[in-house]
Amino acid sequence: MLRLSDRAPGLLLGERVELPQSVELGGNVVIHAGTVVGERARLQDGAVIGKPVALGARSTASRAVPAPVEIGDEATIGSGAVIVAGAVIGARAVIGDQAHVRERARVGAESVVGRGSAVDNDVSIGERVRIQTNCYLTAYSIVEDDVFVAPAATTTNDDTIGRHGPDYQLRGATLRRGCRIGAGAVLLPGIEIGEEAFVGAGAVVTRDVSARAVVVGVPARSLRVVPEAELLERS
What domain range is 1 assigned to? Predict the structure, then answer.
C-alpha cells in the first residue's frame, strides 16, 4: 500500500521505507515498501523505486519474492527511472533518466547506467563501470570493474531466440575488467570479452575475445592488440 507524503510534491511511500532527511527528492517520486535509501541520495522527478516484479505468463525468470531495493549513499536515480524490487544500487552510482534496472541486478559503486538503458534481471555490474545511452545488458550478464559500454550496445542470452523449453539455460555476456564495447556492437549469448579488450563499433561478436584483443567487423575478427599506453593502471 502506498500513501501520499507531504515531504515532497506527489511523493508516494510504501511501508517501512528508510528515507533519511538528507535525501534530495524530486516531484512525483514513488518508493515501494521496504526500500532502503542511503544518505544524500538524489531521487529525481518521477523515479520509481522498488517497483514490484511483473512477469509474463511464459517468462522463465524467478518468481521468488525479491528483497527490497537498496540505494547507496549519494547515489542518483534519474527522472523517470525505474528500479525493480530486489535491485541494489551502490554508493555514488548514477542511474540515468528513463533507465530500467530489474530484480536482483546489482550496480556497483560509482558506476553509471545511461539514459534509457536497460539492466535485466540477475545482472552484476562492478564498480566505476560506464554504460552509455540506450544499451541493453541481458539477464545473467556479468560486468566487471572499469568496463566501458558505448551507446546502443546490445548483449543477448538465448541462442534459440525464444524457441526453447523450460530447462534451457540462458547465458548472458561476461565483460572482464577494463574492456571496452563500441557503439552498436552486438554480443551473442555466453560471449566473454577479455580483460582490457576492445570491441569496435557495430561489431557482431560470435566468439570469445581474448584479453587485450582489438576486434572489429561482422562477424568480429581480431585486428591487433591494445597498446600498453591505453591500459588502466592497477590500484
Answer: 1-52+66-125
